[in-house]
Amino acid sequence: MSRQPSISADKITMDLLPQKFGKAGVIWTSILIVLCLVGLFAYYRQLTQGLVVTAMRDYASWGIYISNFVFFVAISLVGSLITAIFRLANVGWRTPLTRISEIIAVSTILFASIIIIVDMGRPERFTHLFLYSRLQSPIMWDVIVITTYLTLSILFLYFPLLRDLPALIKNSKSGSGLQKLYSFLGSFWKGTAAQFHISEKATTIISVMIIPIALAIHTVTSWLFATTYRPGWDSTNFGAYFVSGAFLVGAGGVLIAMYVFRRAYKLEAYITEKHFDNMGKIVVMLALLYLYFNVNEYLVPAFKMKKAEEHHLLGLFTGDFSILFWTTILLGMILPIVILLFPQGRRPMPAFVMGILVVVGAWFKRFLIVTPTMLSPFLPMYDVPESYMHYWPTWEEWSITIGSLAGALLIITIFARLFPIVPIHETIAETEIRKPEAV
Amino acid sequence: MKRLAYSSMIIALILCTTVLLSAQEKKEKSTLRINLAYHQQNEDLPILRVSAQTKPGKKFEAVEGVAINLFFNEETAQGFMGRATTNNAGVGSLSLPAKFKNNWDSLLNFKFIATVTGNEDFNDEMVEIEIVKARIDLALEEEDSVRVIRAKVLSFEDGSWVGVPETEIKLFVRRLLSDLSAGEEEFYTTDEAGEASSEFSLAIPGDAYGNIIIGAKIEDHDLFGSKAATKIIKWGIPLEPDNSFDRRTLWATRDKTPIWLLIFPNLMIAGVWGTIFYLIYLVIRIIKLGKAEKSV
To answer: What is the pTM of this model?
Structure first.
């Protein structure tokens, strides 16, 4: 790695301890809080007036709430990619990225659960999902697997965090609320060999277990679509297609987070250009994989052009959704592949921009998976108001959706304010191991 | 000056009102095309179907909400059957009122009149049809496993019912949405005795007992209007009731979840959550180890 092995443990601790918000941090957090409040107000309107405040009607009964849900589930897979897969594959440079990816996973999967309740016409009946569940329904599978993944992700975040808590307790103001929080979470961590052994064992178990759960969570989400017989969703390819897209958006999200935390917390010595270079290569690989599945999803049906699917496919290729469709493919997949193929493109700034394109493209890609299909029913839309034939979200839907995205970012921001975003103990341990090599 | 302005305003108001009223008076009414058809099934009382159309451009369009007066034999208060109002397809219908039944039974030829009068948008219209009483005798026979439909069209002439030759007749099986041809031909023409027949060889589902409705009908005949005769017969395949709702299926209620779907996912859920509880137990062990270390 390019990090200097001569950095002392104390220096690492001081570098990586959470820092108070600067001016930019306060502004950023305030903006997120305001966006959340606007979203809450919009949701209050939806609660009091019903789903009529949305643009969802008989045909487009799934709108941006569901696209946003799929997006959240997708990006949450990054936790298993960076932390579990890289850990099991013994990828040495993963350390500074593990906690970033885990907190992204926890915050987004939490908001995936919240946004699905928002989509419900009668949210007070949420408990019915459990009380009157039918195991035959893919929706029930999703409820089970999301709950499981959220629990595992929290544990995956917590076990490695335990080792950093003594440093946090030691360096926080005595008797402060923060110190009480840290003490509650980990005052019992003494760093004994037995504790380390248990912690390592737990982390390995989670690393192994979270991979199939992560694959299951997005596969089941894809089955919410693929188990219904509709143009664009009637595919046996959907599980793999969704999972590959999820890994891509997750990797894109990590690129953005790496850049932002590196700049905001001055972590250049820990999140190095080498990390951007490696993550850039991974994004290229994942984007190529996702592009491959996209070719399968669209080119094969387009070759056959079945009458029933014609409206949906032409709507994407040349119709109402064509600009969004081609922009998403070009800017969200092809351009990042081209730019990140070159070493210069994998430098922090271009990699960050490509990360943004991947993530924004991924959000709109989920919109394109949900809405055009809803507006292409097998039986033609007939004798319905004109507004039923189109879907464009209302301001309430936009506000709630943006509010939920802001909420996920707020959790990440607050977490980074309270806890080290780069694991302190692991970084020191790696430095200690590397020291003899330097000598 | 003020008075002059006031007078001018009143004059202008009167002029405007006059112009508006005259414009209303001059509003031209459109021409309406009404159609009257006679339908009778078996020996039921006949139904009169009316339709109203207008031609604002190059093609005819159905007119909704037109009240059409219907008369039996004469356009008088005694002959007034009732009023049928057209629906959004421009169609309305009225069954012959029971009070006319005796009169209708006794007559061999009768007339129906449809009128539109006093409509705000359309000129007065009248149309009439004359009907000759006719009958269809339907016989469903089975000989040596060969099923035959025989239909005979009869009209009353010179004191007796006689066969009507050269009449197009349709032999059909009634299905849910429309009538299906029962024979190989869509239409049959009656012979000199007024009879038409066809073998019935369709294997189609009936009700739980195999009952189906077979019929013969003449449609829009110049003299007889539309007439149909139907009979119920066990020539269909008895329908096996679908009791899958009571079985363990993917579409059943939760208490009828398929066994395999109960076993395998629950095994997986138990395996995964068992491990999660074990992980929580490991946290508790770490806590206990920490406390033990503290006390030492």
So the answer is: 0.74
